[in-house]
Design goal:
CATH architecture of the largest domain: 2-Layer Sandwich
Shape: elongated
CATH class of the largest domain: Alpha Beta
Largest sheet: 5 strands, antiparallel
CATH superfamily of the largest domain: Transcription factor LuxR-like, autoinducer-binding domain
Number of strands: 5
Strand order of the largest sheet: 2-1-5-4-3
Distance between the termini: 56 Å
Strand content: 5-15%
Helix content: 40-55%
Order of helices and strands: HHEEHHEHEEHHHHHHHH
CATH topology of the largest domain: Beta-Lactamase
Number of helices: 13
């Protein structure tokens, strides 16, 4: 006999279970940040979060958001990463040291520590309390900074306990989100510098050096004349190298060259960072 059970109780819009379901559905897209912020708020009362992938002398943002997304302090997150302020963060230093442990670690930051005298006004001017969760996901090491803002009270003991209990789940979700995002090339990052483009082409193809240099400069946006000037060759020589490179790659246009490059850059970038992370942690 078949038994049919009907759920006649309406779902609560902001229940932890509903928020978790929404979070899973948002992995890999731009809605992940707000969904993760809402889930953390329901879990422990957090107002903001910033999540990072940890590597050797490198920190990469995975996601960052406020419960009210429009209030997300993007400038502070970017300064923390791009200006290397994280290297002066005692909690992040401790996280880097502990991240290779068998279990996740919870670090409760003490802002009264004199080591934060310089960092707090620059990165945490309106933060009342901060917890840093660190550990390993399936694809590497991650750090999750969870913040409680003024004028709210510090995190309650119960909230910290819930965060600790959910630590492995949170790290797994961050790892999965990062993997999905990494598998899709970020065009802006992929084409940021000529050195980046050229290094990727040289590392992932069998093109002769000059042909790789010409393709890199095409992707960077230089004209044939500009490439000729940059490489100190004639414009006809540039056209010859381009023709040979296209024949080797079995492509016929700049659009096809861009598609070919982005497919390789995504894998190359992920492997490069993962290698650096593995060296740092072993």
């Amino acid at each position: 006999m078949m038994t049919v059970m009907i759920q006649d109780r309406p779902a609560v819009a902001h229940s932890p279970e509903t928020l978790l379901a929404q979070l899973v559905d948002c992995m890999g897209n731009e809605r992940f940040g707000p969904a993760f912020a809402n889930y953390l708020h329901s879990l422990c009362g957090a107002d903001h979060f910033a999540a990072f992938r940890l590597g050797r002398d490198e920190l990469r943002e995975v996601a960052a958001c406020c419960v009210q997304p429009e209030r997300t302090a993007r400038d502070r997150v970017e300064s923390y990463v791009n200006q290397g302020l994280w290297k002066h963060d005692p909690a992040m230093t401790e996280a880097q040291r502990r991240v290779d442990g068998a279990t996740a670690t919870i670090i409760h930051v003490d802002f009264s520590d004199h080591e934060y005298d310089d960092l707090r006004p620059r990165v945490y001017p309106h933060v009342r309390d901060r917890i840093l969760l660190c550990g390993r996901g399936a694809s590497g090491a991650f750090g999750l900074s969870v913040l409680r803002a003024d004028p709210h009270t510090p995190f309650a003991h119960e909230g910290i306990e819930k965060l600790a209990q959910a630590a492995e789940l949170l790290l797994a979700m961050l790892s999965k989100h990062a993997d999905v995002c990494q598998s899709r090339p970020n065009v802006a990052q992929a084409l940021t510098t000529l050195d980046e483009i050229e290094s990727c082409i040289v590392a992932t193809s069998a093109l002769p050096r000059r042909e790789a240099e010409v393709c890199a400069r095409i992707l960077y946006g230089l004209s044939s004349v500009g490439i000729a000037l940059d490489l100190s060759v004639s414009e006809e020589t540039v056209k010859t190298y381009r023709k040979r490179a296209y024949q080797r790659l079995v492509i016929g246009s700049e659009r096809e060259l861009l598609t070919w490059y982005l497919a390789r850059w995504g894998r190359w970038s992920a492997e490069r960072f993962q290698t650096a992370a593995s060296k740092a942690l072993h």
